[in-house]
From TrEMBL, chains A, B:
<dbReference type="Pfam" id="PF02515">
    <property type="entry name" value="CoA_transf_3"/>
</dbReference>
<keyword id="KW-0808">Transferase</keyword>
<dbReference type="InterPro" id="IPR023606">
    <property type="entry name" value="CoA-Trfase_III_dom_1_sf"/>
</dbReference>
<dbReference type="InterPro" id="IPR044855">
    <property type="entry name" value="CoA-Trfase_III_dom3_sf"/>
</dbReference>
<protein>
    <submittedName>
        <fullName>CoA:oxalate CoA-transferase</fullName>
        <ecNumber>2.8.3.19</ecNumber>
    </submittedName>
</protein>
<dbReference type="InterPro" id="IPR003673">
    <property type="entry name" value="CoA-Trfase_fam_III"/>
</dbReference>
<dbReference type="GO" id="GO:0016740">
    <property type="term" value="F:transferase activity"/>
</dbReference>
<dbReference type="InterPro" id="IPR050483">
    <property type="entry name" value="CoA-transferase_III_domain"/>
</dbReference>
Length: 387, 387
């Protein structure tokens, strides 16, 4: 196998729940040795959704903790803190997502760790960051969705505030943290210097919204809700009912509209002065939408999707996620990797989300049982394992 | 100034609109020399929203193209292709987001470029990837939102399919591509080997949904819409009306509920058997919501937010994005960087979305006029600039 990007990189991982574990999952996929430090009760995600899970590995936990080792240490016990410090000295990266100040109180703040390992890359993930007036405030994904403006961007004009229906800020923050850490490792490779990274969910959310926050900062452009109507404001870049199911069209330019009209068997739309050009179509958007809906009625969304694909019209049936995940197209995309639960049950986990030709990501090791690797990791430190 | 992570890294950037330019914007922020290759009419984002923009730099264009140089070349002209090949030989990274096959037809595919520069990192961004049955299909953000399942995750149970109201897939794809490129540059630094990266918006969308796609793959857990009710299913992790405006609460655990009850002046909720523990509160969610709404009515969302912050209750008023962007907390977060339009008008652009203590990101150079750097870049090649 070829050399992995993060081969030989040791990550000491004090994170729990979602943003931090996603960050270190991406590092593990690139070949890093991620040592997950857990309390005796473990990451709460081990039991996520309230049901009992075999080996304390819930599906949510499994999906972002495969490829890691688990070590149980008591961060309130002096001897265990001493073990942690020895681990820090042997690590390249520390990641934590406690509330700001907690690692310092534990005696594991950046300056302490840096003294143990001068070229350490230390990444703190928090809701609002390590400074500023909101620093101490508690935060979870939906608090940041609310604070950042994200809840006011989706839905029909005038509709109530609505969050994105899954913890998108946690996820984006995790990937941004993995990116920040990798960038810092590249810089360390080139300069020999370590780094302290302050990753905040609120900052990450703003960055995630760059397509609307950017124009707001650069030109005072205020975002507005527009339902499923696309970024282009073209009335044929929207979602429509069909005879069975919904379909989204991505028809913006004049030649695309001609393709759509032909595919619908409605070439007459091209000669209708109401729809003659992009501006006319926007001015007669309601009438055009009615025409498109009428034309789509005889077939199902999946039938139209296939027909439109043949005609070069950008279109997709609206799928639910479980259906989308089993689309045959994905089979060649290395998106899903084989893994298993500790009891041997086969599962799939997501890969890095892209394909690297010379550095293909192999399946990660299975998600660890709580404390499964405590003895082996401490033995590597040269300590007695029978403490 | 300290050495930047991507100092001395040259990126030849053939991307347009959004996902690709976001990827190379992140590289530019880390110190890369990004050369944006444009046609004589330029990236369509220069004119985005249909209005005339001074120097063909719309707010949308400015916000993701600051820090880059612009070179106009005609990729259908043999002499210009020859210039591009000479640029490739002097570049570390090539990024493109044409439809699969276009770069090959232009004579600029990976194998050709790799022959010119063996350790090249070449990143292709597309809707569905470079292989698979959907490879040739056109795609824009909302098509991928539809295909991936994303449109079925937000909103109240039973509500119509609704996209995330801004091009979230483009953005996530761009950041993931920047991460993939940086990871490959780290691997190149360690091994000397280049890379070919195949980044697809559909794959990226699945990865962005890892919090729901992961449990679906790992345990058959089907996601469901639940309005603003949080990931925890706790009825006090939700959004509520107040006397003026909405507020989101992130109250999940028992001690958090006690803090909330006290902050509301409703300690009686703690002794009410309907709300005694987490399970009881879920079973009596409607009654609890009514109690919370009644308790919140006397004050505004902003007043409650301040009061809850003092009491350690996770809460945020629902803000719109322009309001969120000027929150005083952000002033210390290095989120916004000073830039200007070509005519000197001061603007702000977003930084990388996190703070690196030893590698602070300076303001990028202003977004370029179309072709502003053609002469200087070609001069670096040793060519006549008067062609």
């Amino acid at each position: 196998m070829s050399t992995r990007a993060l081969e030989g990189v040791r990550v000491l991982d004090f994170t729990h729940v979602l943003s931090g574990p996603i960050a270190t999952y991406h590092l593990a996929l690139q070949g890093a040795d991620v040592i997950k430090v857990e309390s005796a009760t473990g990451d709460t995600m081990r039991h996520y959704s309230g049901h009992a899970h075999a080996d304390a590995v819930s599906p949510s936990f499994a999906s972002v903790n495969a490829g890691k080792r688990s070590v149980v240490l008591d961060l309130k016990k002096a001897s265990d803190i001493e073990s942690v410090r020895r681990l820090v000295a042997q690590s390249d990266v520390v990641v934590e997502n406690f509330r700001p100040g907690v690692m310092e109180r534990l005696g594991l703040g950046y300056e302490v760790c840096r003294a143990l390992r001068p070229d350490l890359v230390y990444c703190s993930i928090s809701g609002f960051g390590q400074n500023g007036s909101l620093r101490g405030n508690p935060a979870i994904d939906q608090i940041i969705q609310s604070m950042s403006g994200l809840m006011t961007l989706s839905g029909e004009p005038g509709s109530p505030s609505m969050r994105v229906g899954f913890p998108i800020v946690d996820t984006f923050t995790g990937v941004l943290a993995a990116h920040a850490i990798t960038t810092s490792l590249l810089r360390r490779e080139r300069t020999g210097e370590g780094e302290y990274l302050d990753v905040a969910m609120l900052d990450a959310a703003m960055n995630m919204m760059i397509s609307v926050a950017g124009p707001c900062l650069a030109g005072g452009v205020r975002p507005r809700k527009q339902g499923n109507l696309g970024y282009s404001n073209s009335p044929t870049a929207d979602t429509f009912p069909t005879g069975d199911g919904e379909i989204t069209l991505g028809v913006v330019r004049q030649e695309q509209f001609a393709q759509l009209a032909a595919a619908l068997g409605r070439e007459d739309l091209m000669t209708d002065p109401r729809f003659a050009d992009r501006l006319a179509r926007q001015q007669n958007a309601v009438a055009l939408r009615d025409e498109v809906i009428a034309a789509l009625a005889p077939r199902s969304a999946l039938e139209w999707e296939a027909l439109f694909a043949d005609r070069g019209v950008a279109a997709s049936a609206v799928r639910d996620l479980p259906t989308a995940l089993v689309h045959p197209h994905l089979d060649g995309r290395a998106l899903k990797l084989a893994s298993e639960l500790p009891d041997g049950t086969p599962i799939q986990v997501l890969g890095p989300g892209y394909i690297a030709m010379h550095n293909a990501v192999p399946p990660p090791t299975r998600p660890p049982r709580l404390g499964e690797h405590t003895a082996e990791v401490l033995a590597q430190l040269g300590e007695s394992v029978g403490r």
